[in-house]
Structures are given as structure tokens and as C-alpha cells.
């Protein structure tokens, strides 16, 4: 049997592990194979490289190769059978499409397609980050909720939300595991009008990696959003960490002539993949 897990063409560059960056070798191999499965390069039913092949490809011990494959099996990504090798398990959870131009509609869709686990929820001092975003003094109380959102049973985002105490009073007693917070605010009469959002890349620390069921140091998409009401007051600050295989951006662009020549313009309606478009 020839596996697709790590076969290489003659002119294909060999992936080299970095033994000096502090990340265990088995974990580096796990991430490489994990990404191949999540991207679809390795489809359900495809054979994955054997322990012997991984040893040869990466110059690692049999114990290291076995641990990488066992990590994939523990996460349900592959099935290991004695005498039959290792094969990719069923299809991984697929991102849900939502458009950014229908905020409340998207929130309703989120509630139908995902589940939420509230890890922590209570009043705390705003602190530097949330205080700055919400234009509050660091000691001002805010409701801070830490949640994990799941899609098809897979943990796909880690959310930290801060809302001013007086705004929280309007949604007292509401269950954030049942209804997205933004929808609760709308239902309570908060006139959500605009939001400022930044998107960057980060890596999972120990706490987030445990919540999202990914190795520490795994790449994540980081979204920070400040939500404003119709008066311009900041009413919510949210930081979301996404597993990138479950949340991808897709944007249509048009080539147009302008004062500086031909340039790209983004289409007004932006499409995102992932049920957490809003929350």
C-alpha cells in the first residue's frame, strides 16, 4: 500500500522539522498531517503515512512517529487498524457560510447551527484592554464572559466578551449559551449601529489550546471587535480566536480605473465562512 500521507515528487521540497524552536517533533508532524486533512489534501478514506514512512521522511524515531499518529487518532481525524494502516476518518466539520451584511439574520443562523459552552461569566474590572476599547476606567465593572462555540461537535472559536455593567443590567438573567449576546442586546433595546473590527494572526496558548482541542502553539485567526450603539457609545468588546480551518474569509473584488490607475475594489457585500461572523 502506498500512502498519500507524505509521498513526494522528485522535485518537491522536503519539509524539515525544527528541533530548536521548542515545539516537540511529534507535534510538528501532527500539525503537518492535521493541515493536510483539514485542507482536503488528504480525503476521508485516504491512507496516511505509516510510522516507518514518517521516520524516513522526517528523520525521527518510531516513538515520535507513533505519537504523532496517535494524536491524530485521539482527535478523531484518523482511524488506525492493525494490519491495515492508518486512514483519514470521516469528513471534518465544514465551515458555515454567512454574509456580513445581514447581522441579525446571521445571529439567528448561528444559534441554529452551533452550540455554546460558557466557561466563565461574571463582573470583573474592565482592565486595560477592555477598558480602552469600551472607553472605561480600568476599575469600572464589566460583564466578562468566556465561551467556546462548537460546530458539529468541533470546538471552533474561543470568545472573550466584555460589556459595561449598566448595559448588562438590561439582559440580566438571560442565558448566553442559548442566545448570542448581540441578539440579546438588540432584544433589550440597545440600538447596535456600527462596529470596528481588526483581524490578525496569533497562536494558541495553553489555556486556549485546551479549550479548542488544538496543540499549544497552533495558528489561530484573531478577531477583535468594538460594537457601538446609535449614539457612538461602545457597548461591547469582543475578542475571538478561531481555528483557521473552520473560519476563512472570502471577498469578491473588482478591477476599476481610478485616479491612481487600475486598482482593486472590494465588493460591498463581504462573504465570510464560519458561523461566528457576528459573535
Gist?
This protein has 279 residues and is an alpha+beta fold. The protein is built from eight helices and 14 strands.
Characterization of this structure:
- With 279 residues, the chain is an alpha+beta fold.
- The protein is 26% helix and 35% strand.
- It has eight helices and 14 strands.
- It has helices at residues 25-39, 51-58, 62-74, 103-113, 127-134, 165-168, 181-187, 206-212, and strands at 47-48, 78-81, 85-88, 97-99, 114-125, 141-151, 154-164, 192-203, 219-229, 234-242, 248-250, 253-258, 261-266, 271-273.
- The strands form four sheets. The chain has a six-stranded antiparallel β-sheet.
- A hairpin with a 2-residue loop joins β12 (253-258) and β13 (261-266).
- It is globular, with a radius of gyration of 22 Å.
Amino acid at each position: 500500500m502506498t500512502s498519500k500521507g507524505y509521498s513526494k515528487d522528485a522535485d518537491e521540497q522536503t519539509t524539515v522539522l525544527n528541533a530548536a524552536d521548542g515545539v516537540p517533533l511529534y507535534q510538528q508532524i501532527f500539525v503537518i498531517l492535521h493541515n493536510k486533512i483539514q485542507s482536503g489534501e488528504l480525503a476521508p478514506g485516504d491512507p496516511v503515512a505509516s510510522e516507518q514512512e514518517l521516520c524516513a521522511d522526517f528523520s525521527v524515531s518510531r516513538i515520535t512517529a507513533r505519537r504523532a499518529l496517535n494524536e491524530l487518532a485521539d482527535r478523531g481525524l484518523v482511524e488506525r487498524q492493525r494490519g491495515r494502516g492508518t486512514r483519514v476518518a470521516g469528513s471534518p466539520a465544514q465551515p458555515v457560510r454567512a454574509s456580513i451584511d445581514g447581522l441579525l439574520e446571521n445571529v439567528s443562523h448561528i444559534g441554529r447551527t452551533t452550540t455554546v459552552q460558557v466557561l466563565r461569566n461574571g463582573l470583573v474590572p474592565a482592565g486595560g484592554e477592555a477598558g480602552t476599547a469600551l472607553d472605561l476606567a480600568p476599575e469600572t465593572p464589566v460583564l466578562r464572559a468566556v465561551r467556546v462555540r462548537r460546530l458539529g461537535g468541533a470546538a471552533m472559536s474561543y470568545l472573550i466578551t466584555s460589556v459595561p455593567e449598566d448595559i448588562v443590567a438590561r439582559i440580566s438573567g438571560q442565558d448566553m449559551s442559548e442566545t448570542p449576546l448581540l441578539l440579546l442586546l438588540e432584544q433589550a433595546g440597545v440600538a447596535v449601529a456600527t462596529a470596528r473590527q481588526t483581524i490578525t494572526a496569533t497562536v494558541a496558548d495553553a489555556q486556549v489550546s485546551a479549550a479548542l482541542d488544538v496543540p499549544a502553539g497552533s495558528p489561530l485567526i484573531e478577531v477583535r471587535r468594538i460594537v457601538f450603539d446609535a449614539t457612538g457609545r461602545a457597548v461591547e468588546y469582543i475578542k475571538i480566536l478561531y481555528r483557521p480551518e473552520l473560519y476563512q474569509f472570502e471577498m469578491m473584488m473588482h478591477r476599476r480605473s481610478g485616479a491612481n490607475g487600475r486598482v482593486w475594489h472590494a465588493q460591498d457585500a463581504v462573504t465570510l465562512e464560519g458561523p461566528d461572523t457576528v459573535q
